[in-house]
Amino acid sequence: MQINWTYQQNFLDLAPCDVAQILDCCFAGTAIKGTVLGRNEILAACDRNHPTPTKDDAYIKRVTLALEHLARKADAFSLETLHDTVRRETERQNEHRTADKRLPDPAYKLIGDIDGSITLRPRTQLAADHQRFVERNRQQAQESRDFVGHMYAKLPIHDKATQNWRIEGFAELFTEEDLLTELRARA
User: In terms of residue numbers, what domain contains 113?
Assistant: First the structure.
């Protein structure tokens, strides 16, 4: 499949939100430009002058391993930290390679007027509970076809009578009319 990257990148550059691009392709650093509307971070397999290997040496494999490693720590981490982890792994793998078999250095660029790298947070127990809620209610939603959204939250509740705290889960399925009513109320 062929993609007109210049056309696609215009949409990413004009997005007024955080954009993370992970590019595993030859000459991936070519995508690093200078003007964006929001914060745009690019993690690229190589700079603009190099091809990148595929299969066992593919950049995305190192990115995936780094993501798994960082997520196991259960702490938030930035895309810059992800890049540094991949870069160190690339350097480690290159220690045992001849010059003609070296992996290209990955490229990274944070573009935009917003300070700091985009932060990623590993999936929490709350997210896992939310996923179970969605799965449990999917059949009901499919049967009625009315539900278009859902919300799940766990909140600390203080019981004044016993002076104890407890965690309570709240869940809600939203119909299209619920959402439209809420949007109208905010307008």
Answer: 5-120
